[in-house]
Design brief:
Blueprint lengths: L13 H18 L1 H8 L2 H27 L7 H16 L5 H23 L5 H19 L10 E2 L15 H24 L1 H11 L1 H6 L4 H27 L1 E2 L6 H14 L4 H21 L3 H15 L3 H9 L5
Antiparallel strand pairs: 1-2
Protein name: Branched-chain amino acid ABC transporter permease
Membrane topology: Multi-pass membrane protein
Subcellular location: Cell membrane
């Protein structure tokens, strides 16, 4: 029997529903980490989990443009640095409120993303990759030149951001749950965005730019908007990273860091927000475990990445789907 006048937006594909449940399971597991840390009497476990949450947020933000918009940004770590330095610079002037730190990070990153994205999106393919890399390195060397804020050596924060005047984030548990709250909220926002009309146009542009233009859509404003949103989300991760490490450095925005974010997205599965979070978990845990075993851990990490690309091109989520008998 055919259903008439069905609302397409109300129909949730089974794969989307599965990803939603997987995301809920991941967030629940994250929420239980402090319980596990207390049971094991291992406070460092909470520190590691906070770092993973922060980079999961950054990887998810990158996947929004890489996976859904086919924009391979090799300078995305610049927004991590912008967020981190928003905390450091404002704190040095006595402005310690988290809300103001976030506001400054969002405004500066939005302006930077609008300008650099507007220029970068005039190019495609490898030229887009190279120009985003160039802009990222320009931001890196700009902060290296700020000798008043540590220059290349970085700057240690005197204190973490305050919440309504209270040093709430000085407690590692509070910082973890606030970071997790941002991850959950921005995941919900991103998931709604990619399922919206905006997200469908962005995905359609990824699949066939010429066809989208033929049916009346101009890809540029959609891609630029997504680029700005992604940069702003990454700057939120930068604010959280500064508070977690209590230290900021231009190294936060080096091109190596951008490469690490891309690796996280590839490991989890490109075009899958849940996969980006999973990729961050795998990459950071594997890095920690291999570093304990050998000082040459990067070699083995590289071999693992090669195996994933060769035998699981859809990332770990694609591999799991094949194991479960689902279509890749």
């Amino acid at each position: 029997m055919r259903v008439k006048n069905a609302d397409p937006a109300a129909i949730v594909p089974p794969r989307v529903a599965v990803r939603t449940w997987v995301a809920i399971a991941l967030f629940t597991a994250f929420a239980l980490v402090p319980v596990l840390a207390g049971w094991l009497d291992d406070p460092f476990l909470l520190v590691t989990a906070t770092r993973i949450v922060v980079f999961a947020l950054a990887a998810m933000a990158l996947d929004l443009i890489l996976g859904y918009g086919a924009m391979v940004s090799f300078g995305h770590a610049a927004y991590l640095g912008i967020g981190a330095y928003a905390v450091a610079i404002l704190s040095s002037y006595g402005i310690t409120d988290l809300g103001l730190h976030l506001l400054a990070a969002l405004v500066v990153s939005a302006i930077f993303a609008a300008i650099t994205g507007g220029i970068s999106l005039r190019t495609r393919g490898v030229y887009f990759i190279m120009i985003t890399l160039a802009f990222g390195q320009m931001a890196y060397f700009f902060f290296v030149s700020l000798s008043g804020f540590g220059g290349d050596d970085g700057l240690t924060l005197r204190q973490r951001s305050t919440v309504f005047g209270q040093p709430l984030l000085e407690n590692d548990l509070a910082l973890f749950y606030i970071a997790l709250g941002f991850l959950v909220a921005l995941f919900g926002f991103s998931a709604a965005l990619v399922r919206s009309r905006f997200g469908r146009v962005l995905t359609g542009t990824r699949e066939n730019r010429i066809r989208m233009q033929a049916i009346g859509f101009s890809p540029f404003p959609y891609q630029l908007t997504a680029f700005v949103i992604s940069g702003c989300m990454t700057s939120v991760a930068g604010v959280l990273l500064a508070n977690q490490s209590e230290f900021v450095s231009p190294a936060f925005m080096n091109w190596h860091r951008s490469g690490e974010l891309i690796v996280m997205v590839v490991l989890g599965g490109i075009g899958n927000l849940t996969g980006a979070i999973g990729g961050a978990i795998i990459a950071l845990l594997l890095e920690d475990w291999l570093a304990v075993l050998t000082q040459h851990w990067r070699l083995f990490f590289g071999l693992f990445l090669v195996l994933v690309v060769l035998y699981a091109p859809g990332g770990m989520t694609g591999l799991i789907r094949r194991i479960m008998g689902r279509a890749p």
